[in-house]
Amino acid sequence: MKQAKAMQEKMQAGRAELEQAQFDGVAGGDMVRVTLTGAGGLARVHIDNGLLAPGEGEILADLIIAAHADAKRKLDAKQAEMMRDVAGPLAGLPGMPGF
């Protein structure tokens, strides 16, 4: 029972840490950058001025999507790492809570 309580406390601390974290994703050779919050929300978008030429809208949209996907992969990896640290060998088992 003590181990379960300790694991629950670690998970709560991990969630709090993730809420404060931000993850940057890049695309197009750093021409587009996005920042996600720990909850996965889009917090910031940076677009290089060189992409703001007429007719570049579709390319820009694709790069924003790619940068978001890059940041989301980083967020997911951090969540998985934290879960392994908290749950140890139980991480990934059916019924185990996640972040």
Concise description?
The chain is built from two helices and three strands; from the N terminus they run H-E-E-E-H.
Helix content: 40-55%
Task: Give start-end ranges of low-pLDDT stretches.
Answer: none
Judging from the principal axes of the Cα atoms, what is the shape?
elongated
Strand order of the largest sheet: 1-2-3
Q: Biggest β-sheet, characterized?
A: 3 strands, antiparallel
Count of DSSP-assigned helices: 2
In the residues, how many domains can be counted? 1
CATH class division:
Alpha Beta
Count of DSSP E strands?
3
What do these coordinates show?
There is one protein chain. With 99 residues, the protein is an alpha+beta fold. It has a single domain, classed as Ybab, Chain: A (2-Layer Sandwich). Helix content is 51%, strand content 18%. It contains 2 helices and 3 strands; from the N terminus they run H-E-E-E-H. The chain has helices spanning 2-20, 57-87; strands spanning 22-27, 32-37, 42-47. It has a 3-stranded antiparallel β-sheet with strand order 1-2-3. A hairpin with a 4-residue loop joins strand 1 and strand 2 (32-37). The mean pLDDT is 82.
Write a concise keyword list for the protein shown above.
99 residues; alpha+beta; Ybab, Chain: A; three-stranded antiparallel sheet; 2 helices; 3 strands
What's the topology here?
Layout: H1 2-20, E1 22-27, E2 32-37, E3 42-47, H2 57-87
Antiparallel strand pairs: 1-2, 2-3
